[in-house]
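Lecture 7 notes: from sequence to structure.
We start with the chain below.
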Amino acid sequence: MPYRASFYTLGCRLNQAETAIISKTFEEKGYQIVDFGNETDLCVINTCSVTEHSEAKCRNIIRSVLRKSPRAFIAVTGCYAQIGVDSLKKIKGIDLIAGTEYKMKLARYVQEPLKLPTPVILHSRRISRDNFTLEATGNHDEVTRANLKIQDGCDFFCTFCIIPFTRGRERSRKLGDLLQEATELARQGHKEIVLTGVNIGRYSDEGKTLLDVIKALEEIEEIQRIRITSIEPTTVQEEVIDHMASSQKLCPYFHIPVQSGDDKILRAMNRRYTVRDYVQFIERIVQKVPDVGLGTDVIVGFPGEGEAEFENTRRLLEELPLSYAHVFSYSKRPMTKASKMKETVHPEIIKERSQILRELSAKKRQQFYSRYLGRTVRVLFETRNEEGIFTGLTCNYMRVGTITGLDLSRQIRDVKITEILGDMALGILV
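Predicted structure tokens for the same chain:
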């Protein structure tokens, strides 16, 4: 019987893209890939360190796997494996800790998934700065929209962010290599490709930019949608906005982190724009791209955030034409400049402010969805939810559901929106 392997991903879409590739490299070695939670011989946990909560969840996942499969070989990789080696070494049952430099070649280092008395540690403080290729096509069998890694690392060093220490400096994937994976993903039936990275607006390979990546992907006939994930406001080329306005494949959607609506806090965060810059940028997008969907990230409780600074953020989110906001509580991270700042915000105040912004985000989503009542939209369907409603996404990132007995998986269908139900629009197939 072949060895069984399962995988668990914490954190961002980039982690998801990487896990999909790591999974494929083990499958190519003869492993049988099983769903996480089933008994397994090997479990790879791709970790996140963006918050303390992420690291705590990683430790809980490891213990959960060992309760289910006490003889499983546990391989921990990802961001926590890069900066949290000392903490991970203390968890009994881990067999391999692989830092960033070794992550994408993990399958090479596991000859047989047999328990070890102490963990093998593959770690280097030096992370390559060279542009890169990847060894496999991601294993995205269970999802409709395939994540495509095009970039890694960051040179911006925002004072709250640990990513430059966990992933290293910015580097890009070679254009020919990412196109090869995209072509294979399209052949497998993925109609939408989601571009992922740490700072994808800084993509650069032999003079090629993000816009060149998009245009090259548009040439792959089977790909019907290309979606840009989170992108820094100062890195979006004006040409990308112009192209989005006329493209038949590039989704009219941006997720652009603002982090704060107060200039004092933005300076303390080492963000590269002012509130006015951000507002003008969003206004340009809305003017140029019809029906664009706009999301953002915001951090609550950054050191020095008083009532006035928070109110500036709340007011900005309310006034901007956003469809939603992801709200994060500030988490003190080692090695970052913000970790040394003294003007901390009480956790209860952070909790209260976060709830205010989450309620505002829900209101913004309802307002955005309500604009489409009575209109017909095109939906790429994914799966049936727990309530029996088949759901999918529009190109501008609106979640749409329909009640049907048909299997709509991976189909793009027209839906007339009839009502708004929480964080989803309901409609009927046209």
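Points to note: The CA atoms of residues 210 and 408 lie 32 Å apart. The longest helix spans residues 347-370.
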